[in-house]
Design brief:
154 residues, alpha/beta, Rossmann fold, three-stranded parallel beta sheet, two-stranded antiparallel ribbon, 5 helices, Sugar phosphate/phosphate translocator
Length: 154
């Protein structure tokens, strides 16, 4: 609900940051949708300036229905993104390096502020204090990930 509080924070000269909980590419799609720059061409793709074309069928289904409540909120929130100071995205730079470049150099969405990849975050209830003793074994998901071949899991 960024569209509700950002204008107020800006009036009060409070720095504004958004934590965009998705991929950098979805942030770019949000910016494109919010500016009305979506037009699928004859082969069912949407052009992402400076990057690629994506298949319309690869988008979440609510984005394909212009009357769906989700897309209305998606567009409203996207329209306010250009007013924030920075957009934080929880991701590794290595996963979407090309997207980060076109987002931050202005080719794809020149109206957006800088986007900062902040790396995956742990759930708050899983974080330990510095004085906590180390756990005897890693959580099940970490143990499973450790058993997978290198570069086989994103």
């Amino acid at each position: 609900m960024a569209y509700a509080y950002i204008p107020i924070a800006k009036q009060l000269n409070i720095p504004c940051y958004i934590l965009f909980i998705s991929t950098a590419l979805m942030l770019l799609v949000c910016a494109i949708f919010s500016r009305g720059r979506v037009s699928a061409d004859g082969d069912g793709t949407i052009d992402i300036p400076g990057l690629c074309a994506i298949l319309v069928t690869s988008l979440p289904s609510p984005l394909c229905d212009l009357n769906h409540q989700f897309i209305k909120k998606f567009v409203e929130n996207g329209r306010i993104l250009h007013e924030v100071d920075e957009i934080l995205v929880p991701m590794f730079r290595a996963l979407e390096p090309e997207v980060l470049v076109v987002l931050n150099d202005g080719r794809a969405a020149p109206e957006l502020p800088p986007m900062v990849a902040i790396g995956p975050q742990r759930r708050f209830d899983q974080q330990k204090s510095p004085s906590s003793p180390p756990s005897p074994s890693p959580p099940p998901l970490v143990a499973w990930l450790d058993q997978q071949p290198i570069k086989s899991v994103l």
